[in-house]
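Would you mind writing out the residues of a protein together with its fold in token form for me to study?
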Amino acid sequence: MPLTRRTATALIRTARVINPIGRRRELLAAAPELRRRFRDWRGERPFWASLFTFAAGLPILYWPYARLDLVGIPLALSTTSGAGALVIGILLLVLGVSLCCRPHLRVFAGVATVLLAVISFPVANFGGLFLGVTCGLVGGSLACAWLPPEADAGPSVQHDGTATAVAAAEGPGADR
């Protein structure tokens, strides 16, 4: 029976499944490239603002619906504000995802995150017991402060560690 390309591909896939050490070596060899690609992707968007905003929605959503047991005594933080906590928490989660997917909406998402975090303090159990408020304020501030990387901008520090001088434009008619 001749060895066809399809059979050889199936054998290689089977060998990868059977031999996890070889697969691990391939992953370890590809790890620096994957890390570099993730770092480049992360640099093109307000990643940390997105992460903090997403993290702000989680405790705001969790506490009103959690059933806690404190030494046999049931503890419930659910109040009539459960619907408000649900809406605010889901909006913060959506804003966190939208910051990663649509970086050009950073100012809107940042201002909305700060407003929702402040509103969650009286509405949603002290803003998720202060965790949601803190993460929301940090995430919203980071989103408003983030600037996209400029495509034309080069390194502003020389290899010897000294800063380079940047020429300022002379008046409104100066060419750049």
Notes: Helices lie at 5-18, 20-43, 47-65, 82-101, 106-123, 125-129, 131-145. The first strand starts at residue 67 and ends at 70. Strands lie at 67-70, 73-76.
